[in-house]
Amino acid sequence: MKRNILFVDDDSNVLQGLRRMLRPMRESWDMHFATSGQEALELMARVKMDAVVSDMRMPGMDGPELLRHVMREHPDAIRFALSGYSDQELVGRSIAPTHQYITKPCNQQMLVEALEQAMAARDLVPNKAVLDKIARIEHLPVLPRIYNRITSELAKGDPSPKLVGDIVAQDVGLSANILKLVNSAYFGLTRHISTPQQAVIVLGVNVIRSLILSLHVFQSFEPTGRTSFSLPLLWGHCMRTASIARTVAQAEGLAREQADHAYIAALLHDVGKLLLDAHCADECLRVYEKVRQDNRRVAEVESELLGLTHAQVGAYLLGLWGLPSAVVHAVARHHAKDPEPGLLSTAEIVYFANVLDHDIIVFNQHYARPAPEPARLEAVGGVEKYEAWTRAILAMGLTAEE
Ligand SMILES: [Fe+2]
Ligand SMILES: [Fe+2]
Q1: 3-state secondary structure of 230
Q2: What are the helix (H) ranges across 186-230?
Q3: Mean pLDDT lowest for which of 82-96, 99-113, 171-185, 205-219?
Q4: Domain co-membership, 384 together with 235
Q5: Which of 40, 61, 310, 330 has the most CB atoms less than 10 A away?
């Protein structure tokens, strides 16, 4: 089925440019164009749009105001903002209703990929009622500005680690947090890292970027006061799972890109728990009560009581943010029972990293310790492989008290 996508800009030359640039997509997209917020809303009353891409600065109803209307009246439409460098103030105002910012001028590939991926992310949440609820969340965390800056550096080609380090160094608080993490036992580095620039050189741009992202998500999460799990424990679990994923990827001799994807996905694999807890607190309390009472698995009880899992919700958020599809996919599948056919994938590594952390470093006696699903274990090489990974992880010396 064709996707309906609406582009809004008061400058008809910009719309013409988009129309021309996106011509190759006309087999799979029905593209609509509007020159004002009002016209956009009228169009949306007639045609159900999958996504809206709006300019920020427009006379009359501006971008933030339009996207806010879209959020209220058509919550399941993906909302993108096209913004120029001079739009900082408007960007600040539109934070809540915007899923992703695309910097102008943008190239075709980047825009198409970001839109396709965000629309695919929406398909990950099967329960329409819960999707509506999540889609309406006003405080869905947005990508930190510094993350966007690094991403646009990456889009220009191969950025110098020094440049990325300089961007991080401009934020003193963030730099301190990054250096603390990088020098912690999670990384097991033999020498002390003293500047963000060094951290980028040693660990790579992608790892640093994902650390910024997860620090941001965890920091912007406001516990409801009735929070169903411990935030520091979850943070420790995510950091360890990421380190384990990297160790497993290295032990299997995977390429740098795949190892990075495994690291990022493992670091963010449980972000859905934060979202669910912040926005469905009562339901979550019931889930965790049942988990403790019946000694069952969280994802299983979530499916039963909420109609979806934190894995699906987390993948949805990461997809909206435009993280690589291997990362989104791995997060979505981190509690699935069946393996994927083919070579050892990022999803399998993340799955096993999570199981291994629960298995080796037991951090909550109330939860059932997961044994790996037989089908997934079989697919990666059976018990022997699992034991080899266990030995490699024990050698890392990780403990629950990082
Ligand atoms: Fe999980
Ligand atoms: Fe987990």
Answers
A1: coil
A2: 196-203, 205-220
A3: 82-96
A4: yes
A5: 330
